[in-house]
Structure to design on (385 residues):
């Protein structure tokens, strides 16, 4: 792993950093207060190519490596984790099943629309199937040249703003893994309805909805891979996207650390800035350690992906570590701010609320440990360095 970014990686990251600093961070607290998803800002991100960072070069996108892609996610989350989630869920999570499972024709359809501004959503979770992804009840039935989808998907990021979905469904629950299918679905298909936005603790700029499929006809040519390959496509998708979540969690760590540092240097108590006290310095030092180790771990996972080496456990380690780190670092930032940190006058209470989801979505902290444990017992441990 190279600890120095290439000029191209630096430029991409800087562009996302500038955008987050100027166009996200100054407004994020108000959007959060208003529970508002700013579509005009998503449109600006599209104009800059930020909503299509995951599109391969062959399909008109920037063809970024994973180190660059995760760098963009960290920077956007430093500005606002809700909008970073919206971008990640579209160009990462929802598009990864296409990246790993689609043929050329399917990629042209999916990425072509994204390059024209379409936002995507990933429909896996159901009211009764969260950590137990295989417990899904959404059914797909072959009918002539189509599949018919029926079921309810829960907590779908971008649900109400997406123009296309990747959807996981089962041919028959009795088939277990072998019955899962993955589809690309056009939002305009008849039979799709979307509930109102969930009222969430944090990441309030991202829309989270229930998406209901009622006798939705999907052309058979929209099936990714073959019947029964959906579970493998799903697991590969989650391996990829979890690194991106770790990057977003690192962005929250970074924002929390920067805010706490600035405040600690300005806030005077006992006649000096509180940063002069060792008790506060130790907290800031720990926050920097958690931020940097989170960054190193997601960068390692992304580097392994770019090198074509196994990265499953590293991706889960990065997600588990950085998710916990984001909660700890943002919580400590509130502590540095004291009573002011507990108010909505400063951004640190928002960082704390935003951070919590990093331990939950795309596999809870506990699921990541299941993934790591299973991989360890099957393949042992190879550090690769
Ligand atoms: N490549 C290919 N195949 C793979 C694979 C990979 N990287 N990883 C696993 N597989 C295969 C396995 O070999 C297995 O196939 P076989 O049965 O043929 O051997 C199959 O996929 C299933 O793998 P496991 O047996 O490991 O799976 P499991 O059923 O034990 O999985 C689990 C358990 C890890 C808990 C899994 O269900 C899981 O990850 N759950 C969490 C789901 C999740 O992350 N949900 C979040 C939804 S997205 C979201 O959060 C929304 C948002 O908007 C941000």
């Amino acid at each position: 792993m190279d600890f120095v970014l290439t000029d191209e990686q630096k430029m991409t990251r800087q562009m996302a950093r500038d955008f987050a600093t100027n166009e996200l961070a100054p407004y994020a607290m108000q959007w959060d207060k208003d529970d508002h998803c700013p579509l005009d800002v998503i449109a600006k991100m599209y104009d800059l190519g930020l909503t299509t960072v995951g599109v391969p070069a062959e399909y008109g996108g920037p063809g970024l490596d994973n180190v660059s892609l995760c760098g963009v996610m960290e920077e956007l989350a430093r500005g606002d984790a809700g909008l970073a989630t919206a971008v990640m869920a579209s160009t990462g999570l929802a598009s990864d099943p296409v990246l790993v499972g689609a043929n050329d024709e399917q990629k042209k359809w999916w990425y072509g629309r994204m390059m024209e501004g379409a936002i995507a959503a990933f429909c896996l979770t159901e009211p009764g199937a969260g950590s137990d992804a295989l417990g899904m009840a959404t059914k797909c039935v072959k009918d002539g040249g189509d599949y018919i989808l029926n079921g309810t998907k829960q907590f779908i990021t971008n649900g109400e703003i997406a123009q296309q979905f990747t959807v996981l469904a089962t041919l028959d629950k009795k088939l277990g893994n072998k019955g899962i299918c993955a589809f690309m679905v056009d939002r305009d298909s008849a039979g799709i309805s979307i509930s109102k936005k969930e009222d969430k603790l944090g990441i309030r700029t991202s829309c989270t909805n229930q998406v209901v499929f009622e006798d939705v006809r999907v052309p058979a040519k929209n099936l990714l891979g073959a019947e029964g390959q959906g579970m493998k496509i799903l697991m590969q998708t989650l391996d990829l996207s979890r690194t991106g979540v770790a990057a977003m969690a690192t962005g929250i760590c970074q924002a929390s650390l920067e805010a706490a540092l600035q405040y600690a240097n300005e806030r005077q108590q006992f006649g000096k800035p509180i940063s002069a006290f060792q008790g506060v310095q130790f907290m800031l030092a720990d926050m920097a350690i958690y931020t940097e180790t989170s960054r190193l771990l997601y960068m390692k996972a992304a580097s392994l992906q770019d090198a074509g080496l196994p990265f499953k456990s590293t991706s889960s380690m990065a997600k588990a570590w950085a998710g916990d780190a984001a909660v700890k670092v943002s919580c400590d930032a509130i502590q540095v701010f004291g009573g002011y940190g507990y108010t909505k006058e400063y951004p640190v209470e928002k960082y704390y609320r935003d951070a919590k989801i990093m331990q939950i979505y795309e596999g809870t902290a506990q699921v990541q440990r299941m993934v790591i444990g299973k991989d360890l017992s099957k393949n042992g441990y190879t550090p690769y360095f």
The domain at 120-228 is CATH 2.40.110.10 (Butyryl-CoA Dehydrogenase, subunit A; domain 2). The first helix runs from residue 7 to 34. The two ends are 8 Å apart (CA to CA). Residues 169 and 385 are 39 Å apart (CA to CA).
